[in-house]
Design a protein that fits this description.
Low-confidence stretches: none
Strand order of the largest sheet: 1-2
Strand content: under 5%
Oligomer: single chain
Order of helices and strands: HHHHHHHEEHH
Shape: globular
Helix content: over 70%
Distance between the termini: 22 Å
Radius of gyration: 18 Å
Structural class: mainly alpha
Length: 201
């Protein structure tokens, strides 16, 4: 984990926060029926995770060990508030649609986990990279789920109709449990790919 390439591979595939660590599942259920909302939500996580890691790594020597978790939570809260204010100012419709889920980024165990496990013991720049790539690892799997759900549930992508007229939408894809069905299928497929690669070595 001491190289940028190694961090990238680890966070995007080998130790992906969603389909390997099974973290951030609430977001998978909450926002993945719409690609626009999913993109904004996951981009916010990339922003918060990256800057949280960078900040924690930069000031870790100044933080007393007994209160480090509280300080990390305050740092995360600071960046989440910035995201929330920017969304309210420039994307009010998206902000209203996401509702309380932006605020719940504060409790996202992916961000807290990387701050504690990586930023506390690494330098600022590679910690920033770790936070960004962890966020992207979270982003790509949620975007894939949102792609399937919006396409089949609404016949659209990013709100634009792409399926032909007369396409019968799948009501189940609009319902929250479909996210878990798709995620479960994705985990099964990805783990099979990994196992087949390992067995072929």
């Amino acid at each position: 984990m001491n190289s940028y390439k190694g961090v990238l591979k680890e966070n995007l595939w080998d130790n992906n926060p969603v389909f390997v660590q099974i973290l951030g599942i609430c977001s998978t259920l909450a926002v993945t029926n719409n690609l626009t909302n999913t993109f904004i939500m996951t981009l916010s996580v990339v922003f918060v995770a990256g800057l949280t890691n960078f900040t924690v790594a930069s000031i870790k020597h100044l933080i007393p060990g007994k209160v480090r978790m509280i300080i990390q939570t305050l740092i995360i809260s600071f960046f989440v508030i910035i995201v929330d204010l920017l969304l309210r100012a420039f994307l009010p419709t998206v902000s209203k649609s996401l509702g309380p889920y932006v605020g719940l980024i504060i409790t996202n165990c992916i961000i807290m986990g990387r701050a504690e496990a990586f930023a506390q013991s690494n330098k600022p720049l590679i910690s920033l990279w770790d936070g960004i790539t962890t966020g992207i690892g979270y982003m790509w799997i949620l975007m894939a789920i949102a792609f399937i759900r919006e396409l089949l549930g609404f016949g659209s992508l990013f709100g634009m109709q792409v399926m032909p007229e007369g396409f019968q939408t799948w009501t189940i894809m609009i319902m929250a449990p479909s996210a878990f069905f798709i995620l479960g299928g994705a985990i099964w497929i990805i783990n099979n790919i990994k196992l087949s690669k390992e067995s072929s070595k």
